[in-house]
Structure formats: structure tokens, C-alpha cells
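STRUCTURE:
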């Protein structure tokens, strides 16, 4: 909870101002927006339409908006459990820059988790209190234009933050941004959207490279359909990342070193800390962990709040 409050106040909040500015045009045009319009100014009941289990502990929740709105790429929506007044952030899975009349959240249930248990007990037809969206990392196509290469390390449900960025970058109308992703999870079932990622890698050839890591191999099964695991096994380490991510940049891109790249890290706190060191209250702590040891500097790494 302390982590969450800190992330909300400083990490996530760092972008609220920008997002409010971005939206101020809408507010100006429509100062009395309808009470059932999703905004970051107030809690709004949003209709839960469908729940689709995707693994033992994780489901996709489909919501319908009474009024279409734009949900910026890589933004968060806050969900509130009204009974205990607890709120948590979740990242809409397939947000685009266009206006949307629906969105999906992928939520993992934690046995002691307050809001994730509340969501997994919810039923279609119920309305859930939400506010947002709040941009976490600027991922629109206009924002992405500045990058030549984007490396990503996602853990478990952290894939929700980077998936829309991958789509946005790969479909950029003019710029051919290179994307690399290491997706790590406890087990193969928690490598959410793997088929979609594999398909993108096929469609976009060398522009999108994805590799996978699981904590340990699943116990042997006698089933005839078991496919042998071909990815990495173990916690994220330098060997998994070398040759996959953009090179560490020791100085600002210049004429002699023109490639402009960034590495995004998104996942549970323990994984982000292991990969890049503590995010800190400002999000600007020095890079430590695996990436720090590989020579990545603060300006080249963005740690998502978790
Ligand atoms: C910007 C942002 C976007 C997020 N997007 C998503 C998303 O798309 N999908 C999603 O499922 N979650 C996402 N999260 C995490 C989410 O906000 C909650 O932290 C998570 O659902 C747990 O909340 P809870 O109330 O159920 O658990 P809490 O009551 O906060 O915690 C209870 C227990 O669960 C454990 N726990 C909590 N979170 C984790 C974790 N990530 N890994 C391991 N143990 C944990 C705690 O250690 C504790 O023991 C996001 C967080 C942020 C800040």
C-alpha cells in the first residue's frame, strides 16, 4: 500500500499535469461533461460486460463506456473497491489513440490482494468505480518518433503497459522503430498475449524481436500435447538481454553515435528492482540491478511504477 501511494503521488502523478493539459481542450469545449463520462476528475461507475479467464489467477475484464473517450497509449485507470475505499491502477490492454467505447483490463488475483480480489469477485452487469486515464509514459506515435530503438523488459501483467506501445511503434506511418522485448513470467501460462506477440514478430520481421523467460520449468507432464519449452529459464540476467536490447549509451546521442534508444522496464516491484534497481519516489534513482551492471544509465531506462 505504501508503494502504491508513493507511486500514485509521485510516479504516476508526474504525468497527470501533462495529461490534464492535453485534455483541457475537451474540458473547455464541454465544461459540464456527463456524469457517466470516464475522466480523471471524478469516480465514474463503468459497466463490466465480460470476464474471460486467461490463466489460473488472471482474467481479462471487458468494460463498456457510456460515452466514447480516448484512452492514451500506456496510461493507467484507477479502480476502486467502494466498500473498503481502496484503489489500484490498471493499464488498459489494447488502448489506441482513437476514441474507444470499450476497454479491457488484465488483472491478476493475489490471495491477500484487496482490489484484485474485489475485481475477481465482480460479475458482468456490475458497475465498477473508476477514474482516469493518466498517462504513465508518453507512447503516442508523435511521442515515439524521437526513438530509433525501444528495448522492453516486462514481467507478468507488466506486459499490459508495453503491448500498446509495441503496436503504436510498429504501425508508425513514417518511422521504422526497432522494438525488442524480453517477457518474463513465473510459468508459460502467465506469458499473456504470447500468440499475439509471436504473430507480431512474424509480421514485422527483424523490427520486432521477442524472447521469453520463465522462472523454472513446469513439472513434467504426461500429456501428449506438451510442447517443450524453448525460451530462457531463470530470473532475468545479462545473458538474456545482451544482443537483444539496444546498446547501453554512455553519452547523449551525437553525430558519431546517432541512435536514440530507451529501455522500458515494467512488472512487479521485485522484478523491476532486480532488473533496474529501485524506482524511487521520483522515478529517477540511478540504474542498478542487471541493467546497471551492463552499463545502462538513468536517461536510457524508464521504470514503470508498480
Ligand atoms: C501504473 C500501474 C499499472 C498497473 N497495471 C496493472 C495491470 O494491468 N494488471 C495488474 O494485474 N496489475 C497492475 N498493476 C498492479 C495493481 O495496481 C495492484 O498493485 C495489484 O492488482 C495488487 O493490488 P491488490 O489490492 O490486489 O493487492 P494489495 O492489497 O495491494 O497487496 C496484497 C498482497 O499482494 C502482493 N502483491 C501486490 N501486487 C503484487 C505484484 N504485482 N506482484 C506480486 N505480489 C503483489 C503484496 O505483496 C501483498 O502481499 C499496476 C500498477 C500500477 C502502479
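SEQUENCE:
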Amino acid at each position: 500500500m505504501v508503494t502504491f501511494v508513493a507511486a500514485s503521488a509521485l510516479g504516476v502523478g508526474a504525468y497527470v499535469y501533462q495529461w490534464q493539459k492535453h485534455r483541457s481542450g475537451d474540458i473547455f469545449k464541454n465544461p459540464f461533461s456527463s456524469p457517466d463520462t470516464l475522466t480523471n476528475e471524478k469516480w465514474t461507475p463503468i459497466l463490466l460486460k465480460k470476464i474471460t479467464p486467461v490463466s489460473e489467477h488472471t482474467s481479462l475484464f471487458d468494460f463498456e463506456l457510456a460515452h466514447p473517450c480516448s484512452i492514451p497509449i500506456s496510461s493507467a485507470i484507477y479502480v476502486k473497491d467502494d466498500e473498503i475505499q481502496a484503489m489500484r491502477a490498471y493499464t488498459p490492454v489494447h488502448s489506441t489513440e482513437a476514441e474507444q467505447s470499450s476497454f479491457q483490463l488484465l488483472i491478476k488475483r493475489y490471495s491477500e490482494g484487496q482490489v484484485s480480489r474485489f475485481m475477481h469477485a465482480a460479475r458482468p452487469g456490475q458497475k465498477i468505480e473508476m477514474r482516469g486515464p493518466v498517462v504513465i509514459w508518453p507512447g503516442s506515435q508523435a511521442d515515439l518518433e524521437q526513438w530509433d530503438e525501444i528495448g522492453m523488459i516486462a514481467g507478468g501483467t507488466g506486459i499490459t503497459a508495453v503491448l500498446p506501445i509495441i503496436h503504436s511503434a510498429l504501425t508508425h506511418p513514417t518511422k521504422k522503430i526497432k522494438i525488442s522485448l524480453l517477457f518474463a513470467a513465473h510459468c508459460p501460462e502467465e506469458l499473456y498475449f504470447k500468440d499475439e506477440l509471436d504473430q507480431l514478430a512474424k509480421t514485422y520481421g527483424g523490427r520486432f524481436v521477442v524472447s521469453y523467460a520463465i522462472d523454472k520449468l513446469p513439472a513434467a507432464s504426461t500429456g501428449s500435447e506438451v510442447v517443450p519449452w524453448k525460451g530462457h529459464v531463470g530470473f532475468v540476467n545479462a545473458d538474456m538481454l545482451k544482443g537483444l536490447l539496444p546498446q547501453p549509451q554512455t553519452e547523449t546521442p551525437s553525430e558519431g553515435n546517432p541512435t536514440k534508444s530507451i529501455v522500458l522496464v515494467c512488472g512487479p516491484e521485485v522484478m523491476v528492482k532486480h532488473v533496474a534497481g529501485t524506482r524511487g519516489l521520483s522515478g529517477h534513482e540511478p540504474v542498478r540491478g542487471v541493467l546497471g551492471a551492463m552499463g545502462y544509465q538513468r536517461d536510457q531506462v524508464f521504470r514503470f511504477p508498480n
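REMARK: The longest strand covers residues 58-70.
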